[in-house]
Design goal:
Length: 328
Amino acid sequence: CILSSAPPNAAPSSSYKEMKWGKSLWRVDGKVLELNDFIIVADSLRFSEVNGRIVNLRLDQDILNAEIKKFRGKDSEGFEIVELDAVLNQESGLFTIGDLRLRTAIAEYKVNLSTNISPTNYQDLDGKSITLGLDIKSNSLYEIESFFSLMDRYDFLSKDLMNGGFKLHSQISGDLNNLNIEHFNFLYSDSLQIIARGIIKELMEPDSQEMEFQFDRLMIPKSLLEIAWDKLITDSSFSVPDYLLVDGVYNSSKAEHNFSGNIESNAGEIKVQQASANLGSIPDYNLRASANLLHLHTIQDIDLDNIAFRMNARFKGENIFTADAFID
């Protein structure tokens, strides 16, 4: 391995300011760099027992080339990298991670990334582009929880739900002002499934953020429906259907939310021409839909079995069940 420093008057490249490798423009060149029981500290993460190899390493002004092979280590909170392999490249302002494969104690991750966002400078993200392919196969949500605090954000997540395994296949491209989700396929515990694509605009600006998603398939099992039902509905005389199968288009902008599509279950079908909600200071809901409901005795103890109807309704008020209502 060769380590050298450029002369003090050496001119940095045009993208040197973004990379900030060092004022002296350190240069590193080596065929193999062996790591044995290293300790790596990065922000709140502290990895010990780090072992692995960095092959064909080159660090020269704004150029970075490296292959990581059989990298492994443990952090202080118990997160363990069983094996990590990847190819890293930074040149001409483009940073890529090729064929990254990460195996932990409970999950496998595959990542392919290409972006002109600098890995050492996140101050200027305007106009920066990203292409990301991400695959995850995990036995539990708890590993994600250690990074994103899912249970604090979503109070419906119980310990039982967190223990469910999941698979994710996704492809994303664009920039932070116009992010294109080309494909999103999420399968949880072999029951909940989301297959969707969409666009998110102004990702970093919540006040002006807009999004639109095409749901090709949203399958919600009875177990999750019961959790949502208990939180939204106080009338225990109703039971939930065995499943919900949804396809359609959802879009939102600030306090506006809209959906149109189909909802199917063992209790029938609802065709939604328009369902909108304005969640401003006084919530305002609008619904235009038609329904063909079957086997109603299975969700409530009534003699009526089948019913078909069309509805044009508006509800305005803090609580949809006590709001001012118009139903046609």
